[in-house]
Fold this sequence. Notes:
Elements: H1 8-12, E1 16-20, H2 25-37, E2 43-48, H3 56-64, H4 70-75, E3 83-87, H5 99-108, E4 111-114, H6 125-145, E5 151-155, E6 166-167, H7 178-187, H8 190-201, H9 207-222, E7 228-233, E8 235-237, H10 254-262, E9 268-270, E10 279-281, H11 282-299, E11 305-309, H12 319-332, E12 345-347, H13 350-374, H14 381-399, E13 404-405, H15 408-416, H16 419-424, H17 434-449, H18 457-487, H19 491-518
Parallel strand pairs: 1-2, 1-4, 2-3, 4-5, 5-7, 6-13, 7-11, 8-10, 9-12
Helix pairs in contact: 2-11, 6-9, 10-17, 11-15, 12-17
Amino acid sequence: MRLRMISIPEFYEGKNILITGATGFMGKVLLEKLLRSCPNVKAVYVLVRPKAGQKPQERVAEMITCKLFDRVRDEQPECKDKVIAVSSELTQPELDLSEPDKEKLIDCIDIVFHCAATVRFNESLRDAMQLNVIATRQLLFLAQKMKKLEVFVHVSTAYANCNRKHIEEIIYPPPVDPRKLIEALEWMDDSLVNDITPKLIGDRPNTYTYTKALAEYIVQQEGGKLNVAIVRPSIVGASWKEPFPGWIDNFNGPSGLFIAAGKGILRTMRASNSAVADLVPVDVVVNTTLAAAWYSGVNRPRNIIVYNCTTGGTNPFHWGEVEYYVNVSFKMNPLEQTLRRPNVNLRSNPLLHHYWTAVSHIVPAMLFDAFLRLTGQRPWMMKTITRLHRAMMLLEYFTSNSWVWNNENTNMLMSQLNPEDKKTFNFDVRQLHWAEYMENYCMGTKKYVLNEEMSGLPAARKHLNKLRNIRYGFNTVLIVLIWRIFIARSQMARNIWYFVVSLCFKFLSYFRASSTMRY
């Protein structure tokens, strides 16, 4: 009973932690939260590959200097000394670990957080299998050898089983035995793999969700002797509260679309206004992950516990609301050098969507590029629009459908926290106010992704007003031209025009008379 009352910071005290994917979006937030809220953690080992001539330790040192770690650096100046970079390449045999590093990890690691994955929806099946499945399997083999390991936490995705409409907190049977597929990929050439990919993934939308489902089964089969927890977040977005509201550092997922909308480039998108946008803040996912490791480490459950980390069933937010708040937020706090006023519209009808894509995306892009060529500049808008359309196509499946996730295990986990831990490791999404969150999210893309200074807001607002005036002027000129070319030259058109105007006048006169009589 004493162990069951231990707090989360006490559980992590004196522990050696291993994190994969620590240089990724969620991995960074997990590392920062662990250092800040569990200050007595002994050390955090992070698997990092050399990149762009930088050694792993140099990459980690540079990462800790970023804005995300400002708060923990102020509160705990020596925290960086607890972070130990280990050179590793997850796509290589045995994770490309040196023997000394491997022995060190085997001897000292208490808890493993496996966050690394390829999140590219259009990844080839071979590459997605390599990082999402084979690397997970190799990490499990290493974990089996760890002498002090208490918990292995695998970060999956709520969409691993998106071919189902109702998703429970269980590991579903895989569409194919991943071990047999791994063996088959060894002798298949790339062209054959690409040919069979559509048949293999079946009714799943991409290789990402397919391989994450296989990875869960691998964890269940190969991690049988380990104390395992699986956390399944839905669409991970900017931070809600910690270390500060709205932190985001990438264009992935909805963030890139928000920025495109804020710049006035994205005007139409295929989505269902009534579909649930299951956004979940990254700090909610991190707090759930840390709490899941604590619960499994303290209680030692007999079976793997799966946590659906989602918002749709508890605090639903729809894509139509996303559209509204994105437009409002970027009109209040505009991005710099916007091309048009933010005004994205979601359309579920494919014909309407294609029409508005041509009218509001392709034609303006071609005209803009023609202007750039005439002025001796390099055209770039059509390339940008093409990339944007590809990104939207990859997201269409998720913006046009809704799912129902069970959250019983997540709710149980929340109930087990003591009052202090509920404040420090808050993942109660019932408290999430979407209007405020979306405003902070959009502001976060401005400050942390585009690195725009807040001092530039007055100029950005002035530019937005200028664009509004240009639009009104253009519409006025267009109406005059239509009048001169079509209406003024045709008696029938003039008659129709006068009839409409007189009808409007009579309509207004009627309401004016009705108002006077009431007065």
